Amino acid sequence: DREYALERDCTTLSRHVLEQLHSFGAEAQDLSALMNRIALAGKLIARRLSRAGLMAGVLGFTGETNVQGESVKKMDVYSNDVFISVFKQSGLVCRLASEEMEKPYYIPENCPIGRYTLLYDPIDGSSNTDINLTLGSIFAIRRQQGDDVDGSAQDLLQDGHQQIAAGYILYGPSTMLVYSIGNGVHSFTLDPSLGEFILTEENITIPNHGAIYSVNEGNFWQWEESFREYIRYVHRTEGYTARYGGAMVGDIHRILVQGGVFLYPGTEQKPEGKLRLLYESAPLAFLIEQAGGRASTGSGEIMDVVPEKLHQRTPLIIGSKEDVALVESFIEQQA
Ligand code: AHM
Ligand code: MG
């Protein structure tokens, strides 16, 4: 037996996506092209991040405030632009909606044929940007519904079941891409020397329970009592451990692999919490459910929430089935 690992090296993301697409019929080529472009965006962002500390003008703030009221970083802008650039002249995506743009960005030359919308958070965990820590990008693909004649994107205001693909790119010690097109969850690691994402694990399943709870406990006194009760339970019960990295792509990746629960509850000042439904919570919910986990708002499934506006926020409890159910049981007790 030769031990080149050639078989593994050749299991690239693009080959894998093609193999997954049997049930998509005429759309298969489109989806494979979409995933390839998302991968290219991930490579461009990863390349810039890996040299950020060596180059002038990459790190720090732009001085602007985005639609969320958050200070914008140069990497947020760059990464937002990367996704737009890779989808220009693709003929695939007529519009992109992101955390950094108040309204969707239209690519008019794609619109006659581009049947998809890309929803994305270009840099998840922005506070980690300037200190060389884990970051992510989150994405989801939806079919264009209707004509959106007035450009208000009303047709995007639908539940998470309308997503046809979702995933994230994790910028850690290595760059990983994790995706689902409704047929399991699969992870890939970027081999920088090949410029290819190579299969790491196919059909990932999240454990039904895990030791990790991941939440910003600095908000403890701003939560509803039910969340305080849950945290008190975790503190006095053996077998729990806290992990919170400031970028939920990293925290949720850990939970996908090891089990546990990530929470971002509502606070007094922000009853809906911080995280946005369409390009943060819903894509991650799609992915985690595909891996056998759950995602809840505390009163229902994330996947069932129909937003009223593009940048709508929602509380998020996501991870292993049993751990999500345990948090919910504390909410029910207080109700
Ligand atoms: P961002 O996309 O603007 O970076 O916000 C999302 C991030 C999550 O990745 C992370 O879990 C959370 O915000 C951290 O917020 P906080 O500092 O309030 O705990
Ligand atoms: Mg984000």
Q: How would you describe this structure in keywords?
A:
single chain, 335 residues, alpha+beta, eight-stranded mixed beta sheet, globular, binds 2,5-anhydro-1,6-di-O-phosphono-D-mannitol, binds magnesium ion
SSE topology sketch:
Layout: H1 6-9, H2 13-20, H3 28-50, E1 61-65, E2 71-73, H4 74-87, E3 93-98, E4 105-106, E5 116-124, E6 135-143, E7 163-171, E8 175-180, E9 186-191, E10 196-201, E11 212-214, H5 225-236, E12 241-242, H6 248-258, E13 260-264, H7 277-290, E14 294-296, E15 316-319, H8 321-334
Parallel strand pairs: 3-5, 11-12, 11-13
Antiparallel strand pairs: 1-2, 3-4, 5-6, 6-7, 7-8, 8-9, 9-10, 13-15, 14-15
Bound molecules: 2,5-anhydro-1,6-di-O-phosphono-D-mannitol and magnesium ion.
2,5-anhydro-1,6-di-O-phosphono-D-mannitol is lined by residues 70, 99, 121, 124-127, 216, 246-248, 274.
Protein name: Fructose-1,6-bisphosphatase class 1
Enzyme class: hydrolase
Family: Belongs to the FBPase class 1 family.
Protein architecture, described:
Strand 11, helix 5 and strand 12 form a beta-alpha-beta unit. The chain has helices spanning 6-9, 13-20, 28-50, 74-87, 225-236, 248-258, 277-290, 321-334, and strands spanning 61-65, 71-73, 93-98, 105-106, 116-124, 135-143, 163-171, 175-180, 186-191, 196-201, 212-214, 241-242, 260-264, 294-296, 316-319. An eight-stranded mixed beta sheet has the order 4-3-5-6-7-8-9-10, with helices on both faces. The relative contact order is 0.13. It is globular. It contains eight helices and 15 strands. The structure holds 2,5-anhydro-1,6-di-O-phosphono-D-mannitol (AHM) and magnesium ion. Residues 99, 121, 124, 280 line the site of magnesium ion. Residues 206-330 form the Fructose-1-6-bisphosphatase class 1 C-terminal domain. Residues 12-202 form the Fructose-1-6-bisphosphatase class I N-terminal domain.
